[in-house]
Each structure stands twice: as structure tokens, then as C-alpha cells.
């Protein structure tokens, strides 16, 4: 199956809080040696933040021509290469950033994201565990490792990791939603429903929880409420209609994906 890496990366940014704009700071990157370096870095960073990957790539290329030891630029270019579908190139750039800044967590997180895009679960796990060994409460690494566990079919471990990520970062809505979906997969549907409803009360425009609740309510026979939540979810993000996207990109467990597809086909619970 061919995955749309542009859609994949956007989803990963939302779900994992991956670092698109890895900004140089005194702890990590070398100080800017001159004004030209500073100006080129800021310009490339602006293109990255504006969602213009081709311009951003050219910008980071210019930064690295001028300052090939700038680890932040390597990591940022790696993220842009992932957006453009050059996953191997993204991994190579993140690896170079790690060589230049061996104690920094962000390149490991970003490399793990690229490794996940290639379904290299064990390699991604190594990167996330590298972070967690140094900071057991790193919410992004906990969340991403949860996705790895889920992709390997270990939804019990995934549920635990999503819960830890949500505790480590209050307001991490996607972690809470993923935990609810893992509970759904594990047949703890009452707890899953409570979590989804709590999320919707706090974040009424959060499509993920509404789409998950639509599937759960449908199989429970609450058709009217399922349709109401689905109208909101599909209006917010039409990607939730795509089963492949849910499984391969958003990383929903198979049971809620199957139930949502039944709902969309108007099959009886």
C-alpha cells in the first residue's frame, strides 16, 4: 500500500507534536557565526512554519552550504524532506543532526517519526526509548512509542503509553483520544465512551473523538447521536472517511475502524 507522506506528516505533527521548527538555542545549536547565517536560518524557518516545503528545502540547503555543522538546520531539513516524500533522506538528515548534537532529543523524535513512516518499528522504538531513558515523562516520545506498540498489535501497552503521555502533558488531546480508541479495541467500551465524551465537552471541534464516538454509538444502537457526531467530524476533517488513512496514518486500532466503516455503509450493528 502506498502511503501519502504529505498527509502522513501533517497527521504526525498533530498527533505527536513532532518538531517541524527545530530552533537553534544555546543548549543545542551553535550560535550563529554571522548575520547571513542568522538571516538564512530565519527565512528557511519561516517557510517551514508557513507550510511551503519546497521553498523551505531550498532555504535549509542554503543554510547548510554556509554552516554545515548546524545541527538544527539538518534536523529541520530532515522534517521537510519527510513532507516531500524523501523518507530515507529525512532519516539521513536526522542522523547527521544526532551526530552533531548527540545529547539532543528532538532529532531522535524526528528520526523515529520518519522510521515509522517506513514501518521500521524497532528502529523507531530505539529512538523513542533513547529519549525516555533520559526523560521518562517526555509526552511526545511516550505517545509515539504507543503508536509503535499499536502498530505491532499490542494495544494494552499502547493504551498504557497513551495514558502516560496524557498525564505528562495536560491538554494532549490526541493522546487521550488514542487511549480511548485503544480501550475501545480492548472492549473497555464504557470507559472509552466516557473519555470520548469528556474530550468533546472540552474540545467541541475535535474531529478524532467525534469520529470515534460515532463508531462506538453506532454499534451500541444509538444511531441518531452517532449521525450527529459524524456530521461534525466529517465536516471538520473528511480524512476520517478513509479506512486506509485511519489505519496507516492516524493509527486507529482495527476494531473502531471496522465499526466506523459499518456505520458509513449503514450496516446494522
Topology of this structure?
Elements: H1 5-16, H2 35-49, H3 53-66, H4 71-83, H5 87-100, H6 106-117, H7 121-134, H8 139-151, H9 155-168, H10 173-185, H11 189-202, H12 207-219, H13 223-236, H14 243-250, H15 254-264
Sum up the structure in keywords.
269 residues; 2 domains; disordered N terminus; Serine Threonine Protein Phosphatase 5, Tetratricopeptide repeat; elongated; 15 helices; single chain; mainly alpha
Verbal overview:
The chain folds into two domains: 1-135, Alpha Horseshoe (Serine Threonine Protein Phosphatase 5, Tetratricopeptide repeat); 170-269, Alpha Horseshoe (Serine Threonine Protein Phosphatase 5, Tetratricopeptide repeat), CATH 1.25.40.10. Residues 1-30 have low confidence and may be disordered. The protein starts with a helix and ends in a 5-residue tail after the last helix. Helix 10 (173-185) runs antiparallel to helix 11. The protein has helices spanning 5-16, 35-49, 53-66, 71-83, 87-100, 106-117, 121-134, 139-151, 155-168, 173-185, 189-202, 207-219, 223-236, 243-250, 254-264. The protein has 269 residues and is mainly alpha-helical.
Gyration radius over CA? 20 Å
The total beta strand count reads 0
Question: CATH class of the largest domain, please?
Answer: Mainly Alpha
Total number of distinct structural domains: 2
Question: Which stretches are low in confidence, meaning pLDDT under 50 for 5 or more residues running?
Answer: 1-30
Distance between the termini: 29 Å
Which homologous superfamily in CATH is the superfamily of the largest domain? Tetratricopeptide repeat domain
CATH topology of the largest domain: Serine Threonine Protein Phosphatase 5, Tetratricopeptide repeat
Helix content: over 70%
Shape: elongated
Element-level helix/strand string: HHHHHHHHHHHHHHH
CATH architectural category of the largest domain? Alpha Horseshoe
- Separate helix tally: 15
Specify the biggest β-sheet.
Answer: none
Main structural class = mainly alpha
Average residue pLDDT: 89
Amino acid at each position: 500500500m502506498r502511503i501519502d507522506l504529505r498527509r502522513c506528516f501533517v497527521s504526525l505533527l498533530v498527533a505527536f507534536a513532532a518538531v517541524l521548527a527545530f530552533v537553534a538555542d544555546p543548549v543545542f545549536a551553535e550560535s550563529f557565526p554571522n548575520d547571513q547565517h542568522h538571516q538564512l536560518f530565519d527565512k528557511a524557518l519561516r517557510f517551514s512554519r508557513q507550510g511551503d516545503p519546497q521553498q523551505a528545502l531550498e532555504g535549509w540547503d542554503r543554510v547548510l552550504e554556509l554552516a554545515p555543522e548546524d545541527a538544527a538546520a539538518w534536523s529541520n531539513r530532515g522534517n521537510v524532506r519527510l513532507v516531500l516524500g524523501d523518507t530515507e533522506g529525512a532519516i539521513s538528515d536526522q542522523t547527521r543532526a544526532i551526530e552533531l548534537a548527540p545529547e539532543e532529543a528532538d532529532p531522535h523524535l524526528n528520526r523515529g517519526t520518519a522510521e515509522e513512516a517506513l514501518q521500521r518499528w524497532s528502529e523507531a522504538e530505539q529512538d523513542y526509548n533513547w529519549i525516555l531513558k533520559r526523560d521518562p515523562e517526555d509526552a511526545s516520545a511516550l505517545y509515539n512509542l504507543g503508536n509503535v506498540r499499536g502498530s505491532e498489535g499490542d494495544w494494552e501497552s499502547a493504551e498504557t503509553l497513551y495514558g502516560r503521555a496524557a498525564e505528562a502533558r495536560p491538554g494532549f488531546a490526541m493522546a487521550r483520544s488514542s487511549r480511548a480508541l485503544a480501550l475501545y479495541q480492548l472492549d473497555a467500551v464504557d470507559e472509552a465512551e466516557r473519555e470520548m465524551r469528556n474530550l468533546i465537552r472540552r474540545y467541541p471541534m475535535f474531529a478524532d473523538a467525534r469520529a470515534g464516538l460515532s463508531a462506538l454509538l453506532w454499534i451500541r444502537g444509538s444511531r441518531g447521536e452517532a449521525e450527529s457526531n459524524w456530521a461534525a467530524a466529517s465536516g471538520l476533517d473528511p480524512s476520517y472517511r478513509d479506512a486506509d488513512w485511519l489505519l496507516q496514518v492516524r493509527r486507529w486500532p482495527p476494531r473502531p475502524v471496522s465499526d466506523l466503516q459499518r456505520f458509513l455503509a449503514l450496516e446494522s450493528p
